[in-house]
């Protein structure tokens, strides 16, 4: 059995490849080309992001996006969805997304890395893991798993990373719901842990007002999870730790197909790719950490 901590390490390496897309100029250009690049919020192209990440679900309404994305303000989503589908169909958006992935990885990794046997092996392992995850109760994962897989290894690797990210995220949302944390409270408590977005980045990208943020902080203080300074209390830190550990447990399923050795090999192969992506400034300064 693959240890949940080993699965988490592998996920974190893969997730950087997935997430870098949405902060890239290649993505902004691709969304502009299909008519979805004019509206932006802070660090990313909001309308394009909502459309691209939900397109596998079909032309859904704002409620479905709010439910599955969880920590965004519904009013922000409703400004862009379903209006985006009148401009570009989900299939058009998915095709544009994949073109952006291709351009991004070619820029960040280079042609030699994309053609390497190591990347091809990483893609094969990641796809094996992603294709064996269960669909029930995992709406974003299941929708991505229904998409055709690209023939090019670097694109298949990104698609597999996306499936695995959404599988883990779907499970995490179930745990947040069980813990009684709404989307904003989950965001505030994660930011307070120092492991998520900075407060500024969270407010700019998720659509919440400062007043809504402070009200969520008060609710968390009422539960004994935050202190007067906005830091996690002992109980708050324990809850966040429990949530992460349970997310690791629920997210480990796909990696059982690879076993401990296969999971370690995938981490070993993807690690240098992720380091190269990070070294080239794929994420904006001030996005993660305390502040």
Question: What is this entry, summarized?
Answer:
This protein is mainly alpha-helical and 291 residues long. It contains 16 helices and no strands. Pfam families: HTH_67.
The overall strand count is 0
Q: What proportion of the residues form beta strands (DSSP E)?
A: under 5%
Structural Rg: 19 Å
Low-confidence segments, given as residue ranges, are none
How do the SSEs run, as a string of H and E?
HHHHHHHHHHHHHHHH
Domains, number: 1
- Helical amount: 55-70%
Helical/strand content category: mainly alpha
Count of discrete alpha- or pi-helical segments spanning 4 or more residues: 16
Write the layout of secondary structure elements.
Blueprint: H1 4-20, H2 25-33, H3 46-54, H4 62-69, H5 74-80, H6 83-87, H7 90-109, H8 111-114, H9 117-131, H10 139-145, H11 153-178, H12 183-192, H13 199-206, H14 210-222, H15 234-251, H16 259-279
Helix pairs in contact: 1-11, 1-15, 1-16, 2-7, 3-7, 4-5, 9-11, 9-16, 10-11, 11-15, 12-14
Organism: Streptomyces polyrhachis
Protein name: SalK
Pfam families: HTH_67
């Amino acid at each position: 059995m693959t240890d949940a901590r080993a699965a988490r390490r592998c996920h974190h390496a893969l997730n950087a490849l997935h997430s870098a897309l949405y902060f890239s100029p290649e993505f902004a250009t691709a969304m502009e080309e299909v008519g979805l690049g004019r509206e932006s919020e802070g660090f990313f192209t909001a309308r394009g992001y909502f459309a691209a990440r939900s397109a596998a679900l079909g032309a859904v309404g704002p409620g479905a996006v709010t439910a599955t994305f969880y920590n965004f303000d519904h009013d922000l989503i409703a400004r862009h969805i379903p209006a985006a589908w009148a401009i570009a169909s989900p299939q058009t958006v998915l095709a544009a997304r994949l073109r952006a992935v291709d351009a991004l990885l070619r820029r960040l990794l280079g042609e030699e890395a994309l053609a390497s046997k190591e990347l091809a092996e990483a893609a094969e392992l990641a796809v094996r893991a992603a294709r064996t995850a269960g669909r029930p109760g995992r709406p974003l994962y299941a929708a991505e798993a229904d998409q055709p897989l690209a023939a090019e290894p670097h694109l298949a690797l990104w698609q597999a990373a996306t499936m695995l990210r959404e599988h883990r995220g779907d499970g995490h949302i179930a745990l947040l719901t069980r813990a009684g944390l709404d989307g904003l409270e989950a965001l505030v408590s994660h930011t307070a842990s120092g492991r998520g977005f900075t407060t500024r980045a969270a407010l700019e990208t998720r659509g919440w007002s400062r007043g809504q943020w402070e009200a969520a902080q008060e609710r968390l203080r009422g539960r004994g999870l935050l202190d007067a300074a906005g830091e996690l209390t002992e109980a708050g830190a324990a809850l966040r730790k429990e949530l992460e550990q349970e997310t690791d447990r629920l997210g480990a399923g796909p990696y059982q197909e690879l076993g401990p050795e296969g999971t370690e090999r995938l981490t070993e192969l993807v690690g240098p790719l992720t380091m190269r992506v990070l070294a080239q400034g794929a994420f904006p300064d001030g996005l993660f950490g305390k502040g």
